[in-house]
Design brief:
Elements (H helix, E strand, L loop, with lengths): L1 E7 L3 E9 L3 E10 L3 E2 L5 E2 L2 H17 L8 E8 L5 E3 L18 H8 L5 E2 L2 E2 H11 L9 H11 L1 H5 L3 E3 L1 H10 L3 E3 H5 L4 E2 L6 E2 L1 H7 L8 E3 L4 E4 L2 H7 L6 E3 L2 E2 H8 L8 E5 L3 E7 L4 E2 L4 E5 L6 E7 L3 H10 L5 H5 L8 H4 L3 H9 L10 E3 L17 E3 L7 H24 L7 E5 L6 H11 L2 E5 L5 H15 L3 H8 L2 E5 L6 H26 L1
Length: 530
């Protein structure tokens, strides 16, 4: 069985061709980038035509680099960035540039709605929070949440607002463009925090729609992630280079499928993901919430299950920043310098691998340098769009390697903080699966193990783990089997890393300082960035 999964990220799509039989094999993949347009008013927008061009290019490229033919594809789906806002007309055409999950133009709308009321919790109206918590154990308590993007358009672009037929998330828009059918998956609907998760009441909650002033007519039909939406239209098939009628499944957000691709499919199983963003997530058969720490149980691809999910907005993005701004003048060293081994390019697959090797020359604790990975504000365990990254405790003897290692450690410190917050509400597994691009570096894997004090396991094709989970959902749908059981059978552990007790004290000391840096500097962040 061959399936195509579009791993649709913040800045690029990785289109993956999988063969699924007794195992799951990545036959071929192709990557294409698209823009993320950040504006001074907090905007973070994208271009639907750039998205579609990237999909068309990568899909056609699969067949030029593999022996598989288009007619052999049995299904496709999207594993996409989440909590965006795409407003469409009756034909599924976007009425304005889609707003990415990072978009926070709706700060005013958020404050006017959630900041009202006599009694508040964490700055939000207690009455509105309680109503939301009763319905779905969640609440729109961040200016980055989708409802404030929707309300911003209503308040600032009334001509666009009048033309809205339906309000979609990013994967739903892509499915509509492939099939002509305008729907939302349940996980996507939940991402608006307007969806009722109570058993027997699943669907849009009219009370919440009224409370937030959302037009019920803008809310699409809801389907499950595992449902077949329809066949690929003739136009989409021609654009993509595929056969008309290929089944398109619901798919959904990236957080929905990563646990399945990681093999974390038993209640309590916990994984850590580091890609552009990062998170700690525990798989549960019930739903819970920690409103103070901004953690809730989001819907899983399997109905009746949840992923208790704590997010770091910029994780791997911080390492990308390091490469662009701290290591940029080392690119020449990476490629040409004679003091580096002649076989450097054959030894390291990328500059990321080279940097990982270089930071391993710095002792744990980065010689006292600490970095905060809040390059686009922060959501959990504190919500503050003004929070920012900083290097703390730089001295005359501090070198660039120290700073680069401090960035990796800062990401891991924050992930430990998230893990400890998760543990306050739910029981986590002793062993943690580490997935995403960050898990490709043995240096980072060992660092994460040392800092969290947990055994860290990695799995095959870690960077494509969301796509693998989505492929398993599609395969389970075609075969008529349980996706959780299929994941148990096919996802295998490749490596395990155990904590080094010699590093415990130094990391404990630095972690204590790390956690206090936000509290000590919150007022200054506000003064500089509000």
């Amino acid at each position: 069985m061959f399936v195509i999964i579009y791993d649709f990220g913040t800045s690029s799509v990785k289109t993956c061709l999988f063969e699924i039989n007794e195992g799951i094999n990545l036959v071929a993949s192709s990557v294409a980038a698209y823009g993320l347009y950040v504006s001074e008013d907090g905007g973070a927008e994208q271009d639907t035509e750039e998205w579609w061009a990237a999909l068309c290019h990568t899909t056609k490229n699969l067949f030029s680099i593999s022996n598989v033919r288009p007619h052999e594809i049995e299904g496709l789906a999207f594993c996409s960035q989440f909590q965006g806002t795409v407003l469409v007309d009756e034909n599924g055409n976007a009425l304005r540039p889609p707003m990415n999950y990072l978009d926070q133009k709706g700060v005013k709308e958020y404050k006017e709605c959630m900041g009202s009321g006599i009694i508040k919790v964490s700055g939000c109206s207690l009455y509105k929070l309680v109503r939301n918590l009763i319905v779905n154990f969640a609440g729109s308590v961040s200016a980055k949440d989708p409802v404030w993007k929707y309300k911003w358009v209503e308040n600032n672009e009334p001509d666009i607002y009048k033309k809205i037929y339906k309000w979609l998330d990013i994967p739903d828009y892509l499915v509509a463009r492939c099939t002509g059918r305008i729907v939302r998956t349940a996980d996507s609907a939940f991402g608006t925090f307007l969806y009722d998760t109570r058993k027997g009441k699943e669907g849009w909650n009219n009370g919440l729609l009224k409370m937030y002033g959302v037009n019920p007519e803008h809310m699409p039909e809801i389907i499950e992630c595992t449902d077949k939406v329809g066949g690929l239209t003739k136009k989409a098939a021609e654009d993509l280079g595929l056969a008309e009628g290929i089944p398109v499944f619901g798919g959904g957000g990236d957080t929905t499928f990563v646990n399945i691709g990681a093999g974390c499919v038993r209640p309590g199983d916990t994984h850590i993901y580091v890609g552009t963003s990062g998170w700690v997530s525990t798989f549960l058969d019930y739903q819970t919430v920690d409103i103070d720490a901004m953690i809730t149980g989001v819907l899983s691809a399997k109905k009746g299950y949840f992923n208790y999910y704590a997010e770091l907005e910029t994780a791997g993005k911080c390492f990308e920043w390091v490469m662009d701004h701290l290591a940029l003048d080392e690119v020449g060293v990476y490629l040409d310098h004679t003091t580096v081994a002649d076989d450097l390019e054959s030894k390291f697959k990328s500059l990321y691998d080279y940097l990982s090797e270089e930071v391993n020359k710095v002792p744990p604790g980065a010689n006292g340098v600490i970095f905060t990975p809040w390059l686009h504000g922060n959501r959990c365990p504190f919500e503050d769009s003004n929070a920012a990254g900083m290097f703390f405790n730089i001295r005359v003897e501090t070198g660039k390697r120290d700073m680069i290692r401090a960035v990796l450690e800062g990401i891991c410190y924050h992930l430990r903080w998230l893990l400890e917050c998760v543990m306050k509400k739910v029981e986590t597994s002793d062993t943690i699966r580490f997935v995403g691009g960050g898990a490709l570096s043995p240096v980072t894997c060992q660092m994460l193990s040392d800092i969290t004090g947990r055994t860290i396991e990695t799995v095959g094709n870690s960077q494509e783990v969301g796509a693998i989970g989505t492929a398993l959902v599609v395969a389970a749908g075609i075969k008529g089997v349980d996706v959780l059981e299929l994941s148990k059978q096919l996802v295998k552990v490749e490596q395990a890393y155990k904590p080094n007790p010699e590093n415990k004290d130094i990391y404990k000391r630095n972690y204590t300082v790390f956690k206090n840096l936000y509290k000590s500097n919150a007022a200054y962040f506000k003064q500089l960035n509000s």
